[in-house]
Amino acid sequence: MLTLEKVPELYRKLFFLLLLIFLVIIIGTAGYMIIEPDYSNSLIDALFMTTITLSTVGYEEVFPLGDAAKIFTIILIAIGITTLGYGVSSITSLIVEGHIKNTFRDRKMEKAISKLKDHIIVCGHGRLGGHAVKELKNWNKTYVIIEHNQNVAESLKENDELCIHGNAVEDSVLIAAGVERASGLIAALAHDTDNLFVALTARRINPGLEIVSRAEYDNAEVKLISAGANKVISPTQIAGRRMASMLISPEVVNFLDVVVDASELNLTLQELRIVEGTPLDGVPIKDCCIPRELRIIGLKEPRGRMIVNPDAGTMLKPGQTLILLGEKEKIDELKKNNILRT
Predict the structure, then answer these.
(1) Beta bridge partners of 164
(2) Which end is more exposed in the chain, N or C (fewer Cβ atoms within 10 Å of the end residue's Cβ)?
């Protein structure tokens, strides 16, 4: 299969081949009209003679040829065969080269995906899926993209993205993406029915998978949750709320944008689990080993209750999730020292 970057090159070669053939026909027609007197007054006869000569069909010439015309015919046949051979070989080599290159690339990619564990699968690389991939890349998360559009899939592969071309609703495609070893899945397909089938299939293959699904319509949320999605996001609902908030409390929205995406300030907002056996297990917040530079702005209980700005005397327990605000390096250091785990 040709890569996208090779398609313009193929068109250029085809255009050049057609141009060469056109020039050879003009030269042949003009040559017969000049060399052979019987063809001098008939453009059609000269063009016919050139055509049967180049195509080597073996039709009898319209008028008998003299020695000069016979020599010209030999030269014309040689030029025609050379031109056609050059064009065919150039196009064939381009196609074969692209096919071989893609075959080795796909095999290498399949091998890399087979070794992944705790990765994230993104189903659909449209506008929504593209933004999700960009965010995962910013957080250095490992991901695999499933894309149904062949041109988009080829473009992603050319950019060294781990991508599988196929329909995400099919079991074989999800398995090829390593769904049984994945930690999360983003169903970002355009239609709610497709996302529902993805959630249903992925949940059946991997019961412990964290699934976040897109919902185009509000009434699809309950169905997607029933199918196996852990969380459902409605892009239109979120966009509507945000637009209203920008008019009602613009500075609050700007502040939240800074907190969530504060790369220029070297700040990050991240959630971290408390695991049994770590230094945070069984100690109050005031005595925990989290540096003062990091702010604990939220604590989520195992059953789902969220505590905003928890009290210093709150006891930390396994299964709780801390919401931390601070420098990314400080949080990474805690994880590196096995104090916290994402």
Answers:
(1) 146
(2) C
Model confidence band, residue 50 (pLDDT cutoffs 50, 70, 90): confident
* Domain residue extents for the chain: 4-111, 117-239, 266-336
List 321's β-bridge partners, or say none: 273, 300
For the domain made up of 266-336, give the CATH fold: Alpha-Beta Plaits (3.30.70)
Query: What is the SS3 assignment for 327?
Result: strand
Instruction: Write out the two tokens for 173.
Output: 């495609």
Largest CA distance in the chain: 111
3-class SS shares of the chain: helix, strand, coil, % to 5: 55, 15, 30
CA atoms within 13 A of residue 335's CA, in its CB half-sphere: 13
Secondary structure class of 122 (helix, strand, coil): strand
Q: What is the pLDDT of residues 307-330, one digit of tens each?
A: 988 988 889 988 898 888 877 777
Q: Which two tokens stand for residue 83?
A: 């031109």
Task: Answer yes or no: CATH 2.60.40.1120 is held by domain 4-111.
Answer: no
Rounded to an integer, the average pLDDT of 64-85 is 82
Instruction: Tell me if the domain spanning 117-239 has CATH number 3.40.50.150.
Output: no
CA–CA distance, 254 with 161 (Å, rounded to integer):
32
CA distance 137 to 317: 31
CB 11 within 8 A of CB 24: no
Q: Which two tokens stand for residue 303?
A: 């059953």
pTM of the model: 0.62
User: What length does the chain have?
Assistant: 342
CB 2 within 8 A of CB 95: yes
If you ran DSSP here, which 8-state letter would residue 4 be given? G
In sequence order, the β-bridge partners of residue 146 are: 123, 164
Under 8 Å between Cβ of 132 and 124: no
The pLDDT > 70 percentage for the chain reads: 86
Model pLDDT, residue 28 = 86
Helix (H) or strand (E) holding 128: helix 127-138
- Comparison of pLDDT for 86 and 182, the residue scoring more: 182
